Amino acid sequence: MSGERTKINFDLVYKTKVATTAHLDQISRKHSQPLSHFVAFSSITSGRGNKGQTNYGFANRCMENICEARRRDGLSGLAIQWGPISDVGMAAKLLGQNRTKIIGGAHAQSIDSCLSSLDVLLRIPQAVVASTVLPNKNGTSGDVKQENVTVQKVIGDILGIQNITSISDSATLSDLGLDSLMAADVKNVLQSKFNISLTNEQIKELKFNAVESLLKVTP
What we know:
By secondary structure, the chain is mostly helical. The protein has 2 domains: about 5-130, Rossmann fold, CATH 3.40.50; about 150-215, ACP-like (Non-ribosomal Peptide Synthetase Peptidyl Carrier Protein, Chain A), CATH 1.10.1200. It contains 9 helices and 5 strands, in the order αβααβαββαβαααα. A hairpin with a 2-residue loop joins strand 3 and strand 4 (about 105). This is Fatty acid synthase-like. Keywords: Fatty acid biosynthesis, Fatty acid metabolism, Lipid biosynthesis, Lipid metabolism, Multifunctional enzyme, NADP, Oxidoreductase, Phosphopantetheine.
């Protein structure tokens, strides 16, 4: 064991995740009708690690191994490495009222954004995928009070647009290459940073040069 980890608290986390997933795997294999989806909720801690969470990261990786084995056997199997979640769990407690705080190098993702991402991730053929909201590509902290951080700039970073002044007035986010995962990121950022709530369809049809006007109609 390492640090403050003991065999008891290591096994508690390990068995909760791994034994449960393994049991469901074994039971589902006995059914004549294969499952359409077998989904395990993992964590980005599995791939990158986190101080004091050796047992948690190891348990998540073992769950991913089960999903990978199912895929090799021609069965459904998907493990999703989630980043911090803003609405529930440990991240929500750490965030408190500061929803723009960066935890472990990522912004917290809202439940609505997670559900939107899930619709996309279920169609990906890989056994292990990830969903997290990374900070802006320019390295800013995500604090909306920071100078020159606008709605356009934040969305432009998600879309990978270098020069936002060159965008046509009629161009929608879909026209600019917005895909489903980007839409989930935009939805989460608009909600967490600017208190703007839009559906995925509204985001797709949103004109890039009109996004700043959203702030004027937000209560």
